[in-house]
Amino acid sequence: MWVYEEVVNGQKLTEIINTQHENIKYLPGYKLPENIVAVPDIVEAVKGATVLVFVVPHQFIRNLCKQMKSAISKRCRGISLIKGIDFNESGPLLITDIIKSELNIPISELNIPMCALSGANIANEIAAEKFCETTIGYENQEDGELMKELFHDDMFRVGLVKDVPGVQVCGALKNVIALGAGFCDALEMGNNTKSALMRIGLIEMQRFAKKYYSNVKLETFMESCGVADLITTCYGGRNRKCAEAFITTKKPWHVLEEELLNGQKLQGTTTAKDVYLTLKKDNALEEFPHMVTIYRIAFEGLPVERIVLDI
Ligand code: NAD
Ligand code: 13P
User: Fold this and answer.
1) How many angstroms does the Cα of residue 126 sit away from the middle of ligand 2?
2) Which example biological process does GO assign this protein (predicted)?
3) Which of 24, 122, 310, 311, by CA, is between 20 and 30 Å from 12?
4) Which residues pair with 54 in a beta bridge?
């Protein structure tokens, strides 16, 4: 397991993980199996690997791919657990496509494309071995089955869908809708209001996916990566928590990230901004009123009450 090296309590994080078998900074209180070895050098970590599991905050992925490119085995295949999306001048870019293009994996030679895994999967609940489901999106069934074999067990049930873009759009956009849920909680509007915002958010997630990826399946939104992840994130996620504090404390996002997340990263704010800029460029703001309101409250000082008044 490649680990971004940091010094925690005067000791290197990789050394702590390898001696105490616990990631005391990011997953305190849960013992890791002893066959997991933390490696600070990414080239060493990926050398000879035939399956790579990508799970870092999405802003770091390009730089990491550049560093590991020279060591990638020709037989390598990958799966992304990253919930984010990137954008360039021509529109949204899936993280799996960024990984493929940055690593230049000769897909045609290998015929093994990237899969994507996403679901209602709050990390410490999984670490506590509480039951959950997840969704793996694949391009061809064999790859999906292989990845399912790697991840599935009784307490972590994998569902398969032939829809790599759908899984990833769900994982990225639910983080934006969760900001709206946090705003709603700050207003103490209660469960009915939050459910209404989540329902409308889900519709906009589908609309966005269809607009930019015509082959996305609407059934994907009924899987764990869709409606279930939206629910868990809007009730128990970090994006929700920071959005509520953004209103109640009036502190800027970067301060809240620092104060509330202890080094963990907020994904929804960057995604909200990127989605807004893309929709604006495509003259599509009117089709996504809820996500636009969330962006404007988060970045343009729109009064938070508009989260409800704009419905
Ligand atoms: P995080 O938000 O907790 O961020 C901390 C992680 O970022 C640490 O592993 C740290 O080592 C790494 N990091 C910090 N600086 C870095 C740098 N410069 N370069 C590379 N890595 C650096 O991370 P997370 O919660 O593990 O999230 C990773 C991905 O998994 C995200 O896309 C997230 O949406 C997704 N995800 C998270 C959860 C969850 O409950 N935490 C659940 C499902 C999916
Ligand atoms: P947050 O990043 O908002 O904590 O969401 C975690 C998650 O993706 C749960 O499935």
Assistant:
1) 12
2) carbohydrate metabolic process
3) 122
4) 80
For the segment 230-246, what is each residue's pLDDT rounded down to a tens digit? 999 999 999 999 999 99
Does residue 182 lie within any of the structural domains?
yes
225 lines ligand 2 (CB under 6 A): no
| 115 touches 160 (CB < 8 A) | no
Element (H, E) at 88: strand 86-88
1 within domain boundaries: no
Pair (146, 202) in one structural domain: no
Q: Does some domain include residue 291?
A: yes
**Whether residue 83 is found in the same domain as residue 155:** yes
Domain that includes residue 207, residue range: 165-309
Q: Average of pLDDT values for 105-126?
A: 78
Do 141 and 200 fall within a single domain? no
Q: Is 239 in the pocket of ligand 1 (CB under 6 A)?
A: no
CB distance 229 to ligand 2 below 6 Å: yes
- Residue 238 among known ligand-binding residues: yes
Question: Are the C-beta atoms of 66 and 98 separated by less than 8 Å?
Answer: no
Instruction: Evaluate: CB of 83 within 6 angstroms of ligand 1.
Output: yes
Q: Is 174 a catalytic residue?
A: yes
Question: What ipTM did this prediction achieve?
Answer: 0.98
CA distance 93 to 85: 6
| Torsion (CA) 273, 292, 83, 112 in degrees, nearest 10 | -90
Give the count of domains, the chain: 2
Q: Which atom of ligand 2 is nearest to the CA of 241?
A: 3
Q: Is 239 annotated as a binding residue?
A: yes
Same domain, 228 and 267: yes
Q: What percent of the chain has pLDDT over 70?
A: 97
- Within 8 A by CB and 6+ apart from 82, the residues are 54, 55, 56, 57, 58, 61, 95, 171
